[in-house]
Every structure is written in structure tokens, then in C-alpha cells.
Amino acid sequence: MNLSKTLFIANRKLLAIAFLFFSTNIFACDICGCFMGITPYYNRNSISLLYRYRSFNGYDGQSHSLFPNGGNFFIPARSQNNPITNHAGNPSDYELYRSVEVRGKYFINNRLEINAILPYVSNSERYNGYTSSISGVGDVNIYAGYHLLQKLESNFKQQLVAGAGIKLPTGKNDLKNNEGIRYSSLMQGGTGSTDGFVYLNYMVGIGKFGASLNTSYKVIGTNSRNEGIANSTTSFLNVFYTQRIGEDIQAMPSAQFFYEYSGGEKYNGVKTGEHVMNNLMGGVGADIYYKNVALNAGIQKNIWEAETDHPMSAGKVYVGMTYNF
Q1: Angle at CA 44, nearest 5°, toward 104 and 113?
Q2: What confidence tens digit (pLDDT) does each residue in 71-127 have?
Q3: Number of domains comprising the chain
Q4: How far apart are CA 222 and CA 4, in angstroms?
Q5: pLDDT at residue 25 above 50?
Q6: CATH code at position 100
Q7: Do the beta carbons of residue 300 and residue 281 sit within 8 Å?
Q8: Which residues lie closer than 8 Å to 299 by C-beta, 6 or more apart?
Q9: Domain range holding 221?
Q10: Contact 88, 131 (CB under 8 A)
């Protein structure tokens, strides 16, 4: 068998694997993390740059949009040292959470991988016509996964990864506006707490079709102000199809479904009943690979949400690039 044919078959096998080690930042309202896409690069070290955007807006009777009027998709120009506070005149309230993340993955051996996420966050909110924005370094995540199952040599393929990690309180949690009033805990660059999490990822593939399921549970601590978020759970289902275009390009469209639940904010260890999250989102994604470089993009809109005091979850968008080596 010649080299080009061998490489072609190998790439087909890699595509069928098509498994993403989901970001473990997606717990607790999904404010600080997001699914980045699928990767056919099995057991490859990588470094990625990811931009995420998520929108909450519209109490009863207000407009509800992924991109609310007056909100910025990209990070505002001003930094956390000069926060924006002005009268916007638009009655529609919103909360916007954005993040630029540098992500790294390194395989210790064939089954054990180590991951790290270094975020820069920018959060904005408008309430009663007043708009505020902050920007700064967020909380760092470090986590490890062990590949329990690797059945990769037939047309029917499976992969199972279990892991755990920790979120460190590296982001500022005491940012204040021009009047010296501290922003709400959800607006802060970091939570101020040390959190732990566990997760389980399962992938199954038959030919060009496949599906992956990630489920995770996060145990959240409290900060120096006795603030915290209730323990939370998330699940992400991704159904994908792989298609080769020429010798070097591979495309992978996907349908995505994301469910999250959190009991909301806590103070002195007691749930306040505020910012409870219980919703289901769905959308589409596309992953394009050229040699060792991958481009990932996706959009999800709210499908269902339980009634809470929080503005409705309008949806989220992510765009990323990965280099595999």
C-alpha cells in the first residue's frame, strides 16, 4: 500500500474518532466557558485561541435577542480600570459575557492528557437604562482526563474519557464603578472561589456519522465575601458528519444541544433564589481542518427555559482556531 493511500485511510479513521474534550468552564450558567468544536486529531498536543459570547436579556414584556440593541458583540474598548457607566435610554435590559481564551492540551502518554485555560473576560450589563462594563483576567482552569476506552480500529468506534480539575481564583472579584460601588458578583472578572469539577465524555462513530456526549458536575466554593454559586451540572450532545474535501481539507458540520442547571447564587452558604439557571439550547456548528490547523465556529439559541428571576438566556456564539502538534 503506498504512502498517500495509507494517509488517506488514517485520516478517515481519525475523523470517525471526532471527539472534543469539552471545556470544563461550561458549568454554572455557562458564563465562563463554551464548547469549542470537534477535533479529528487524536492524541495530539494543541494550543487554541477561542472567542466566546453569551447573551441574557429580556424580562417579561421586553425584547429578547441574541444581539440586544446597544450591546457589543466584541469586547468594549475600555478596561476594568476605567469602567463604563452611562444612561443608555433603551428600556431593554441585558447581560453579556465575553471571553478570549488561550487553551493548551498536552498528552503525558497515550491515555492521560493535561489541559489549561487562561481567559480574558469582558462582561456588560444594562439595567433600568444604565450600562456598565468591566474587563480583565479571568479564573484559570487546570484539568486532566484519562482515556478509559479506545476502540478505534473498526468501522464502529468508541471513546470514553473521565477526568477532574480545579478552577483557581485568579480573576479580580472587587471591581467597582466610578462611584466606588462594587459590581455584582456575576459581573466580576473572577468568582473569588476555588472550585472543583468532574466530567465524563463519550463518543461513538459509525462511518462518517458520529455523536459525542459530555456530562459534568461542578462543586463550587465561596469567596472571601461568603458569596458563591450552587453546585451545577451541564450536558452537551453533539451529532456530527465528516466530509473530506481534497487531500488536506476536512469539514465537519454538526447539530448541538446543551442543557445546564444551577441552583443560583448563595450567600453564607444559603441559596438566595437569584440567578437560577435551568435551560436547554440548540444550534449548529462547523469545524474545518487544514493540515494541522482547525477553525471552529458555532451558534446556539435557547429552546426551553424554566421560569426564573434571571433575564432569559438568548444564546451563545463561539469562534476559535487550534494548532495541533
Answers
A1: 60
A2: 888 877 654 444 444 444 445 788 899 999 999 999 999 899 999 999 999 999 887
A3: 1
A4: 55
A5: no
A6: 2.40.128.130
A7: yes
A8: 66, 283, 284, 285, 315, 316, 317
A9: 3-324
A10: yes
